[in-house]
């Protein structure tokens, strides 16, 4: 696999965990290459750890903020410093983010009974539906599709960053409307949920391409970690959308 081809593969997804530029040769022994089954199995492990952490966070919500900080740091380290060490950092990331999700979900559940099971069901329903659409060819990740999803993802990130800065240093009714329970806020959340969902398609494509092109074995963990990043984002946005609708 050429360096140019490797870089193109890593640029296929709007997920920030897939935009790291990797270099080097992937002419490695077959038993040391990434496989699709391996990535699926490791995704299952991370999901199990996330659910285990959620149980802890639900019962000890005071751990929510520390766990969120730890998860954020681990994500940055995995993406920008040690993708080859994803086998060590990804499980810790899944566990810490699970604790955070458990705590935040418990808070939402207290305000809106039943919202937790709805958010979980919608998240995995979207995951299963998009995986079916991807494997059946209903949705094809063309270059234009990737560009659209990537651009929208970056745009959403900028909007959230601006919103945070305004909350810290001033006030802006126009920006704050996206967090309201009115038509603008609900419309924005629907848009974000849609873009987060489409990122899953790009994640599926990346993992499949990585397995086909024989990337290193550690990419199974990295691919699973990156898929978890998108799933956690999607779950949080669904939780926010449901809360706005319930209000």
Please give a structural write-up.
The protein is mostly helical and 247 residues long. The chain has one domain. Helix content is 75%, strand content 0%. The protein has nine helices and no strands. α2 (36-59) crosses α4 (86-111), α5 (115-136) crosses α9 (219-246) and α8 (183-212) packs antiparallel against α9. The radius of gyration is 18 Å and the shape is globular.
Helical percentage: over 70%
Q: What is the makeup of the main sheet?
A: none
Write down the secondary-structure element order.
HHHHHHHHH
Low-confidence stretches: 1-12, 19-25
The tally of strands reads 0
Please state the CA-atom Rg, rounded to the nearest Å: 18 Å
Strand fraction: under 5%
Helical segment count: 9
Secondary structure class reads mainly alpha
Overall form: globular
Mean pLDDT: 86
State the end-to-end distance: 52 Å
Number of domains as seen in the coordinates: 1
Which helices and strands, and how do they pair?
Blueprint: H1 3-10, H2 36-59, H3 64-80, H4 86-111, H5 115-136, H6 143-169, H7 173-176, H8 183-212, H9 219-246
Helix pairs in contact: 2-4, 2-9, 3-4, 4-9, 5-8, 5-9, 6-8, 8-9
Please tag this protein with its features.
9 helices; globular; 247 residues; mainly alpha; single chain; disordered N terminus
Compact description:
The chain is mainly alpha-helical. The chain has helices at about 5-10, 35-60, 65-80, 85-110, 115-135, 145-170, 175, 185-210, 220-245.
């Amino acid at each position: 696999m050429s360096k140019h081809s490797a870089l193109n593969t890593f640029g296929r997804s709007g997920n920030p965990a897939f935009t790291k530029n990797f270099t080097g040769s992937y002419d490695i022994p077959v038993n040391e290459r990434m496989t699709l089954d391996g990535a699926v199995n490791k995704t299952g492990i991370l999901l199990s750890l996330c659910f285990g952490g959620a149980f802890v966070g639900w019962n000890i919500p005071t751990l929510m903020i520390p766990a969120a900080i730890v998860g954020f740091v681990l994500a940055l380290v995995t993406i920008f410093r040690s993708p080859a060490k994803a086998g060590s950092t990804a499980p810790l990331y899944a566990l810490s983010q699970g604790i955070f999700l458990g705590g935040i979900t418990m808070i939402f559940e207290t305000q809106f009974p039943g919202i937790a099971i709805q958010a979980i069901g919608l998240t995995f329903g979207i995951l299963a539906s998009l995986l079916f659409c991807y494997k059946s060819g209903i949705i094809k990740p063309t270059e234009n599709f990737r560009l659209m999803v990537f651009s929208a993802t970056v745009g959403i990130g900028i909007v959230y960053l601006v919103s945070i800065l305004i909350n810290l240093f001033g006030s802006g009714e126009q920006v704050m409307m996206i967090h309201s329970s009115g038509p603008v806020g609900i419309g924005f959340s629907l848009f974000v949920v849609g873009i987060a969902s489409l990122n899953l398609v790009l994640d599926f494509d990346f993992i499949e391409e990585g397995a086909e092109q024989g990337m290193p074995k550690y990419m199974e963990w990295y691919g699973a970690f990156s898929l978890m990043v998108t799933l956690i984002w999607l779950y949080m946005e669904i939780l926010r959308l449901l809360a706005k609708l319930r209000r």
